[in-house]
Amino acid sequence: MVPSLIVRLADFDQQIAALQNDVDIRRQSVNKAVIDVALAADAARAATNAVVVADREAVASDQAVDAAQRRLDEMLRAAYMQGNTSGGVADALTAPDGQTAVDRTAVLRRVAAAQAGTVTGLNDARRRARSSRDAARIAKISADAAAGAAADRRTRAQGSVAQTLEALRSATDQRRRLDLRRQTAARALAEAKAKSGDAAGQQRIYDQYVVSEQQTVTVPSSQPAPAPAAPPNASTPVAAPSAAPAVSAPGGPPSAATAASSLLGQLSNLFGFTPQPQTASQVPAQAAAQVPAIQAPVAPVSVASMSGKQMIDTVIARGLSVVGTRYSWGGGDINGPTVGVRDGGVADTFRDFENPGFDCSGLTLFAFAAVGIKLPHYSGYQYNIGKKVPLAEIKRGDLIFFGPNASQHEALYLGDNQMLEAPESGSTVKVSPLRTDGAMPYVVRLINS
User: Fold this and answer.
1) Which residue has the higher pLDDT, 218 or 138?
2) What is the mean predicted confidence (pLDDT) over 312-328?
3) Which one of 177-181, 210-214, 241-245 scores highest in mean pLDDT?
4) What CATH number is associated with residue 360?
5) Which of 98, 115, 150, 340 is the residue whose CA sits 20 to 30 A from 242?
6) Looking at the domain assignment, is residue 287 inside a domain?
7) Residue 409 among the catalytic residues
8) Which keywords does UniProt give here (predicted)?
9) Annotated catalytic residue 191
10) In the predicted model, is pLDDT for residue 216 greater than 50?
11) 201 with 302, same domain?
């Protein structure tokens, strides 16, 4: 029985490891969705502003046409009344030597014809203004729809994280109960061996254990999980990506169960399974203690005379300057650590919205900003910038990506089989051994050395 339990434990370890990867990918999909929502919202605002401008121009064009048309009507009346006008325009156009009324009428008709041309031109301008206004309104409708669709995708992504988290919690709990059974069986066999040297005694005690095991209700969880707390603001996203599965490092890697328990402890807390109380007065002091001294914007570096190697060294030096900074989902910009994003769930439980820090893509965009390279705040988008090089040819300064379509995590390669990364919630920016398990087949090279 013990061997079969061990086999089942191994199966659970594989299942837990797969679920860990799934959680990482889904969390990063939320990261992408949040950026897409922000971009769509910006586009919708721009479209709204364009409608306002187009409306204003259309109104002004209408007013100009109306004024010109009124002026033309006055001139035509003056021309056909042959002198029974107010006299202002006709007198101004009459030569001092006394022309006849017919001459004045001819002049007025010529002026009226010119004014008619002006009205025609203004009418053309009005048609163009109205056409622009209609196009702007259509663009606004499309932009609003895109913003709504992006928000829906973000909501679905958040829900998928919660579902995968629940599956991970369930698998980890099943493994824990199974491990308890294995330990109980192993102790029973050990007691049998100690108390009886003959095989019959061992078999008798083991049979007693099997009977009691069959009569025992499955061991429950050590603590029932309360229902997830309702997020304070379900309209905004979830936490940043965690690192890809680590390859063995010196000292040996933790087991899948240990890693799962660690991840589950973090994520379960985030979704309300075991909330961690924290007073508002404690947060600012903690945040101040966690952020390194590099808070002021770094002065721009002139790269005009730099070699590729010097630029890479500058990028890496800037990245290393924030080692030890906390991980905050959505944190990091071109100037350094920033407070994370409020998401009503994971990031809020870690209080990322009050604590400056970096996520993985925030760290890389901060580092490369040292040489004027501007990157988007999402690993999947960064993967499509620069030159793709086979993973086997990775060099110092390259970006390595993990997960399907670079959607899980990214890090900056330092050389000597080391990389700089902001791994996951609860961790900090750190230098880690290079790992390639789960990595994309290509790295991205933004600077040629």
Assistant:
1) 138
2) 97
3) 177-181
4) 3.90.1720.10
5) 150
6) no
7) yes
8) Hydrolase, Protease, Thiol protease
9) no
10) no
11) no
d(CA 209, CA 204): 9
For residue 434, give both structure tokens.
């290079």
Cβ neighbors of 217 (< 8 A, separation 6 or more) are none
Higher pLDDT, 429 or 297: 429
Q: Is the pLDDT of residue 87 over 60?
A: no
Both 318 and 403 in a single domain? yes
Angle between helices 101-195 and 199-215 (to 10 degrees): 140
CB atoms within 10 A of CB 32: 22
pLDDT digits (tens, 9 = 90+) for 350-399: 888 899 999 999 999 999 999 999 998 889 889 999 999 999 999 999 99
412, 297: one domain:
yes
Instruction: Look up residue 21 and give its two tokens.
Output: 């990867």
* Catalytic pick among 57, 409, 410, 424: 409
pLDDT in tens, 392-405: 999 999 999 998 88
Between CA 331 and CA 362 the distance in angstroms is: 6
Candidate list 360, 377, 410, 424, residue with the active-site label? 360
Report the distance separating Cα 210 and Cα 251, nearest Å: 38
The pair of structure tokens assigned to 141 is: 């409708």
Give just the sign of the alpha carbon dihedral 347, 349, 353, 354: negative
Domain membership of residue 251 (yes or no) is no
Which pair of tokens denotes residue 179? Answer: 């491990």
Tokens representing residue 252 in the block: 């040996």
DSSP output for 375-390 = --SSHHHHTTSSEEEE
How high does pLDDT run on average in the chain? 73
Tell me which residue range forms the domain holding 371.
292-445
In sequence order, the β-bridge partners of residue 227 are none
User: Rounded to an integer, what distance in angstroms lies between the CA atom of residue 275 and that of residue 324?
Assistant: 25
